[in-house]
Write a structure and sequence with these properties.
The complex is a heterodimer of chains A (10) and B (215). Chain A is mostly loops and 10 residues long. In chain A, 0% of the residues lie in helices and 0% in strands. Chain A is elongated, with a radius of gyration of 6 Å. The relative contact order of chain A is 0.33. Chain B is mainly α and 215 residues long. Chain B has one domain (3-208). Helices cover 70% and strands 2% of the residues of chain B. Chain B has helices at residues 3-26, 34-48, 58-81, 96-108, 118-132, 135-144, 149-176, 181-192, 195-203; strands at 146-147, 211-212. Chain B has a two-stranded antiparallel sheet. Classes of the chains: A little secondary structure (10), B mainly alpha (215). Chain A binds chain B through residues 1-2, 4-10, and chain B through 5, 9, 12, 50, 54, 56-57, 60, 63-64, 67, 111, 113, 116, 120, 123, 165, 168, 176-183. Chain B: One of its GO terms (biological process) is protein transport. Chain B: Keywords: Endoplasmic reticulum, ER-Golgi transport, Membrane, Protein transport, Receptor, Transmembrane, Transmembrane helix, Transport. Chain B: InterPro entries: ER_ret_rcpt.
Chain lengths: 10, 215
């Protein structure tokens, strides 16, 4: 599961 | 990357190009809220400065650079280049009402951990501030009661950007179990703020009528 800390969205 | 997010980003990029085009061709920033544009610079700088220490993809870095530089350029156009066309008397929304609550919320609700505090607080601050950054612009629109068609296209593209992120979040939840509650809740609020505008845009501007608010 990807975590939200990656902030890969703009 | 899915189609919704890509179209959302494209819509965001388009909105900025429309705004620059509007200011440059009319040589005027009439109808544009300086305060909203200032908020976007604060939003982009506080969120995208991470491009210095974080690498996601070339697409991601280039877009971040674009948003920081184009929003700063718009601020320059409004505040320096076409300053005489600025009418501060109608752009009266008070910025502390938006910035202070966003700052407080970011201190309470964030994804900070022992490794990253400041960058996470800045990130959530930018998300909260972005969700309400359009308010001075909508407030200005409310006061003037009408808008140039090009300005409404700008606002539509800007609103469509966050609206398109909603199916993106649903898609990401379904395919990768990705959930970002801060971004999702703020994004829903941000999109909801455009509801009135979208309604008038679809019922009037799309049919070739002038954007006028009901008296």
């Amino acid at each position: 599961e990807k975590n939200h800390h990656s902030h890969d969205e703009l | 990357m899915n189609i919704f997010r890509f179209l959302g980003d494209l819509s965001h990029l388009t909105s900025i190009l429309i705004l620059i085009h509007k200011i440059q061709t009319s040589r005027s920033c009439r109808g544009i809220s300086y305060k909203t544009q200032l908020l976007y610079v604060i939003v982009f700088v506080s969120r995208y400065l991470d491009l210095v220490w974080t690498y996601v993809s070339l697409y991601n870095s280039l877009m971040k650079l674009f948003f920081i530089s184009s929003s700063s350029y718009i601020l320059y156009l409004i505040k320096i280049r076409f300053r005489p066309t600025l009418d501060p008397s109608i752009d009266t929304f008070s910025l502390p009402y938006l910035i202070i609550p966003a700052a407080i919320l970011s201190l309470i609700f964030n994804y900070a951990d022992e490794k990253a505090w400041l960058s996470e607080v800045l990130w959530s601050f930018s998300i909260y501030l972005e969700s309400v950054a359009i308010l001075p612009q909508l407030f200005l629109l409310q006061r003037t009661g009408e808008a140039e068609t090009i300005t409404t296209h700008y606002l539509f593209a800007l609103g469509a950007y966050r609206a398109l992120y909603i199916p993106n979040w649903i898609y990401r939840y379904a395919t990768e179990s990705f959930v970002d509650p801060i971004a999702i809740i703020s994004g829903l609020i941000q999109t909801a703020l455009y509801a009135d505008f979208f309604y008038i845009y679809f019922t009037k501007v799309i049919r070739g009528q002038k954007f006028e608010l009901p008296a």
